[in-house]
Design goal:
This protein is of the alpha/beta class. Helices cover 40% and strands 12% of the residues. It is built from 17 helices and 10 strands. Strands 4-1-5-8-6-7-10-9 form an 8-stranded mixed beta sheet, with helices on both faces. A two-stranded antiparallel sheet has the order 2-3. Helix 10 crosses helix 15 and helix 12 runs antiparallel to helix 15. The N and C termini lie far apart (80 Å).
Length: 448
C-alpha cells in the first residue's frame, strides 16, 4: 500500500487523526484478509469491485454531528442521485443529510440507520453503468418512481413531451400519476416492462435517439440561448429552488418554440452541466450567431425586491438596446410584478459576445410572488421570449419615433421628462413601466 496515500486519507474528516501510520497496519490487514467482512477484497472479483469505487472509503463511519471533506463528497453524491430537498454541500452532517442517507439506504436495500459506513459508502460511489455515447443526459444512477421529484424527473417529462406524450406533461419535476402513465405507455411502445418506473433500461431507451429538430431553411437565423449557471454552479438558491434549474427549463421551452418556427437554435448547455463564462461567449462567436440571449433569475438579500429586467453591455449600440426592449416588452405583457426596464452592465457574457446580446433576469428567485408568477406564467413567458426574439430579428425598423437615454446619478423621472420636453406619464407608457422609479444605468425610451 502507498503510505503517503494512507496519510492523506486520515484527514478526510474532522475526526481524531491517526498519528502513526503503523497503527493503520492492523486495519489494512483486516480489509485485505478478513473474509467475514462484507467489504473485504479477498478475491479478484472483490478487488475489481472495490477498484470501481472512487473516492475510496475514508476508513471511519460518518454520522450526524460530524463534518469534513468526506461528508461534502457524500452530500454532492446524494445530490447527483436526486436528493430532495437538495443538500447544502457544506461538509456538516446534519439532519437533512441523515434523512437523505436513510432514503438512499432504503432504496438500495441497506439498513436505514442514517450513518455512512463501508456498505453505504461503496453503494453510493460504485461506478454507475455507463450509458452508450449516444445517450445524453446520462442515467442519474437512481431508479425514478412515482412520488419522487427533482431535475432528472423534469428531464424525463420534457423527453416524453418531445416524443408526443398525450396529454402533455407538466415539466415540474414531480413524478405523479400522469408521468407514471406516460412512462408506461413509452415502455409498452418500446417492448419494455411497463412498470412505470425509470431505471437504466427505460432511461437509455428514452434518451438513445434525440429527436431531430426541423432542418432550418437557408433564411434561418442563428440564435444562441444561454441558460445561466449549471452543474457545480447552482446560481441563486431559495429554499430547494435553484436558479440553474429554472433557467434550463425556460431555455429549453424557448428553444423548442423557436425551432418550430424554423430557426437554428444553439444551447450553451442542455443539461445540468457547468459551462465556463468564456465558453458561453465562444459558442456564440464560433457559430456567428445573429442573437445571444442569456436567461437568469435575479436575487437579493431583500426578499421584497422583485421584477424583471433585461441587460445589455455598457456600450451596446441602439440597435441592440432596441432588441432588448423587443424581448422585455413581450415578457412584461405576459404578466410581471414589476418592470425594472432595460439596463446597461459590464457582464462577461455581454462583453465577450460579438453578436447583439442580452441577459434577461426573469424575476427574483428570492421573492415568493415572482416565483409564483414564474411557475404560473411559465408557458406564457417562454412564448413571450420567443416572440420577442423573432421581433428583434425580423421586424423592419421604421424611422425612429423615440430616442434612448441612459439614467445617471441624480436623475429622477420628472427631471428626465423636463430635460426632453415630455411628461413622466408619456415615458412610463412608452417603456411599460409599473412605477416611476428609475435606476442608474437604466435605458429609457424617450418620445420625440
Amino acid at each position: 500500500m502507498d503510505m503517503n496515500f494512507l496519510k492523506q486519507q486520515m484527514y478526510t474528516t474532522n475526526t481524531t487523526p491517526v498519528k502513526d501510520v503503523r497503527s493503520l497496519i492492523p486495519i489494512m490487514a483486516g480489509i485485505m484478509l478478513n473474509s467475514k467482512s462484507n467489504y473485504v477484497a479477498s478475491n479478484e472479483e472483490s478487488l475489481n469491485t472495490l477498484a470501481s469505487i472512487w473516492p475510496p472509503y475514508p476508513g471511519v463511519v460518518l454520522r450526524r454531528g460530524m463534518n469534513g471533506p468526506s461528508i461534502t463528497q457524500v452530500q454532492e453524491r446524494l445530490n447527483e442521485l436526486g436528493a430532495t430537498p437538495r443538500l447544502a454541500t457544506d461538509g456538516a452532517f446534519g439532519p437533512l443529510t441523515e434523512a437523505a442517507v436513510m432514503t438512499f439506504q432504503r432504496a438500495n436495500g441497506l439498513m436505514a440507520d442514517g450513518v455512512v459506513g463501508p456498505n453505504t459508502w461503496n453503494a453510493l460511489f460504485t461506478h454507475q453503468p455507463v450509458a452508450p455515447p449516444s445517450i445524453w443526459p446520462p442515467y442519474p444512477g437512481v431508479i425514478l418512481r412515482r412520488g419522487m421529484n427533482g431535475p432528472s424527473i423534469t428531464q424525463v417529462q420534457e423527453r416524453l413531451n418531445e416524443l408526443g406524450a398525450n396529454p402533455r406533461l407538466a415539466t415540474d419535476g414531480n413524478f405523479g400519476p400522469l408521468t407514471e402513465v406516460a412512462v408506461m405507455a413509452f415502455q409498452r411502445a418500446n417492448n419494455l416492462n411497463p412498470d412505470g418506473i425509470v431505471g437504466p433500461n427505460t432511461w437509455n431507451a428514452l434518451f438513445s435517439h434525440q429527436p431531430i429538430p426541423p432542418v432550418p431553411p437557408p433564411s434561418a437565423r442563428t440564435i444562441v440561448i444561454d441558460p445561466g449557471h449549471g452543474g457545480s454552479d447552482s446560481g441563486a438558491v431559495f429554499g430547494s429552488r435553484r436558479e440553474a434549474d429554472d433557467t434550463l427549463r425556460l431555455s429549453i421551452a424557448v428553444r423548442n418554440l423557436l425551432q418550430t418556427q424554423g430557426q437554428r437554435v444553439i444551447m450553451t448547455r442542455s443539461a445540468d452541466t457547468f459551462v465556463d463564462l468564456g465558453e458561453r461567449s465562444a459558442i456564440s462567436n464560433r457559430n456567428n450567431a445573429d442573437l445571444f440571449v442569456s436567461i437568469h433569475r435575479n436575487s437579493s438579500t431583500n426578499t421584497y425586491a422583485n421584477g424583471v429586467d433585461n441587460f445589455v453591455f455598457t456600450t451596446a449600440p441602439n440597435s441592440t438596446v432596441q432588441k432588448a426592449f423587443d424581448v422585455l416588452d413581450e415578457v412584461v405583457d405576459a404578466g410581471v410584478q414589476n418592470n425594472r426596464g432595460v439596463m446597461r452592465a459590464n457582464f462577461a457574457v455581454l462583453r465577450n459576445t460579438q453578436a447583439p446580446s442580452m441577459l434577461l433576469e426573469m424575476g427574483f428567485i428570492t421573492n415568493t410572488r415572482d416565483n409564483q408568477l414564474f411557475d404560473q406564467n411559465f408557458n406564457a413567458y417562454a412564448s413571450a421570449i420567443a416572440r420577442g426574439i423573432m421581433t428583434a430579428l425580423n421586424t423592419p425598423r421604421p424611422p425612429q419615433s423615440q430616442t434612448f437615454y441612459t439614467v445617471v446619478s441624480g436623475d429622477i423621472l420628472w427631471t428626465v421628462a423636463q430635460r426632453f420636453g415630455t411628461t413622466q406619464n408619456a415615458i412610463i407608457q412608452l417603456n411599460k413601466l409599473t412605477n416611476n422609479n428609475i435606476n442608474v444605468g437604466q435605458v429609457l425610451k424617450i418620445p420625440r
